[in-house]
Amino acid sequence: MNAHTSPRRRRLAGASALVAAGVLSAFAVPSAALAAEGDTTIDIIDVNDFHGRIESEGTAADKAAGAAKLAGVVQSYREANPNTIFASVGDNVGASTFTSLIQQDAPTIDALNAMDLDVSAIGNHELDKGQDDLTGRIEDRAEWPYVSSNIVRAGTTDPAFTPWSIVERGGVKVGFIGATTEDLIPGLVSPGGVQGLAMAPIVSQVNRYADELTDGKAENGEADVLVLLVHEGATTSALSDATGTGAFGKITSGVSSKVSAIVSAHTHATYDHEIAGPDGTLRPVIQTGSYGVNYGHLQLTVGADKKLKTITSEVQSVNGSSRVPADQSSVQAVSGIVTAAKAKADVEGAKKLGDITADLRRAVQSDRKAENRGGESVLGNYIAEVQRAATSRQGSQVAFMNPGGLRTDMLFASSGANDPDGQVTYKEAALVQPFANTLVTQDMTGQQIKDALEQQWQPDGLERPFLKLGVSDGFAYTYDPDAARGSHITAMTLDGDAIALDDTVKVTVNSFLSTGGDNFAAFASGTNKADSGTVDLQAQVDYFVANPVVTPPTDQRAVGVVTTPVPAEGFQPGDEVSVSLSSLVFSSDDPAAAGSVSVSAGDVVLAESAIDPTIVDKRDEQGRATLTFTVPGAPADETPAAEPTGDALRATALAAEAAPTATTDEPLVVTLPSGQTITLAVTVPIETAAEPTDPTDPTTPVEPTDPADPGTGDPTDPTTPGAGVPGAGDTDGDGVADGSDGTGNGVADGDQPDTAGGDLAYTGADLVVPGIAAGVLLLAGAVALVLARRKRAEQDGTVLTD
């Protein structure tokens, strides 16, 4: 049995002596004093998702209090009640701030050791660098046991790690069963680092060990009280999100009632609920948010018979706590660790990498504060381009970046007195990508890339239903947001050229994505894989060397497009057409600057609409507009006007001859406020001016002349013919139409209509019809998204236009 009874050495000698002497903190727990004779009161203090926030970020209620302040709170409870346990629910390390990150989270582990952490669940970030890193580097340094009952050996239900740990206080054995989100494999960690592992259901595994720990068999490690430390949680503080049929609701209702409390994590939510277990008994279900901003407090009263009598719960602010321990030794020890870590980080972090001209931000939710991993972001696209550039020597053409790998924004505003606006330091860059992934290149077909893009729509039931990939410069795609799963993507282009499904493209992704992380299994199917050995942070450093000043990208790499279905005979004059667009703006942009979007065909603007910048939470649909127009021209079934006669007939004929027209099928072109255009594979008939022809051979186009050019004759004597370039009615260049009376009316031999030649007001402008690449038509509703590629032009020496 992989049991673990905590052998932790307790540094409570000083506290015990104080208790014996009657020197207690003023904040002694009242119920401990009021407990009946023979009862034991146990206080359990917990945190979750600490993520290396060892430095204080301020005194506000929503700021990390720092490890030293947390140490003081924990110590104050120990002084008030020696039967105190300090527990964590995972993600102690990983996605950390720079002070801890720069030393691979060693300062965080040391600080938690100094606080005498008793036990911790395994979070997904404990496995950021794989199982060997957890069992080696992390557990070798940590003085507490890590527990998880449902990370199992593949093909079995045998736990791969210690499933539970017993902590004894006052003669009472408290059993902590660990569990980890079932999304861990393959979604949240690099599959390559957890080979041979799998996820078993949380409920069945926890219930298995709840039974074993209470079955009366000493060899199974008996426990008097059971607490579940589960690295999974409700998405919000609402009670409804912690109950019902969702992933966490199944845990709260399904975990055995032998478990007296559920302490949760992972979702960074804050709540303190009472929820009935399977037998109807209410039990605490809590989570403290994240980063050590709050702490949880369970208080258990256990009778002389070792049976639980009462249990209460609360979630309190660390910054808001007035608890001060009499013994400051643990606080001082932690402060020393943090101070030393900060000094080292300050030296490395202060190094300048480059400058930015504006914010590089992640997408945001509708509150314009919380991160939205489902939205296209300026930062995501920028980092993808950084990684493409870093592997360009390996032939990389496109790079993709997972949104979960971006942990903070890169801001223009100064963060300190010695940090000028716009300057990016090593520390600021490191905090954006703290995972130290390497960059991997691989060959992918157009079909595999399309499959990867389709996987942005995540499996059903996940907290984040959509994950938006950042994409590098030059790559773009369109999609139908309402299509069936697997059928969303309608077109892909690279530098304006369509990507066919059987094309092969050299793609760069980080090592996390390369093995299918975040449920992007298509990236694991690439061929000719090669690890560049370049760490993502180093790629950022190198990019600033090559580009000392970075301007954030403004173009949309993905746009939702849905048009009115095209009739079998195509659109005709009089038909009403609607083009619905979405994902036209970044959610982090100023909504007042959203602007408007238009649709045109040829030179004719058909419709224009303001862009609605309203943010759609968890999705990428912000920036919506619907363009509706009627195809110009008279409908085919419209009753014709009465035929003109006499002078009216001749006037009509002359007008038609003076401005001949032709009808061509022009593609619809959508223009965004930035000038970015989207050329749709949907055409409408538009009347355009016809080319002039040689009157002696109507099938031969004639080079137009400037009708304002008088030739080389005397400009002061209009009767003197010039020696200009021959026009359509002047074959000898004398400036007078052959066979005419010298008036220049263009009549040749008396058989050509007026204005057929010389004085036709023809501008000479070419009418350019955008081509629709055949490869795009492999995809339903194909659309070509054309992007301005100034940055790529600078890097590759090419000239690209919209």
UniProtKB/TrEMBL annotation:
Keywords: Hydrolase, Membrane, Signal, Transmembrane, Transmembrane helix. The chain crosses the membrane at residues 767-788. Residues 690-723 have a biased composition (Low complexity). InterPro entries: 5'-Nucleotdase_C, 5'-Nucleotdase_C_sf, 5_nucleotidase/apyrase, Metallo-depent_PP-like, TAT_signal. Residues 369-524 form the 5'-Nucleotidase C-terminal domain. GO terms for molecular function: hydrolase activity. The keyword Manganese does not apply. The keyword Oxidoreductase does not apply. Residues 1-35 form the signal peptide. Residues 690-755 are annotated as: Disordered. This is Bifunctional UDP-sugar hydrolase/5'-nucleotidase. It comes from Curtobacterium caseinilyticum.
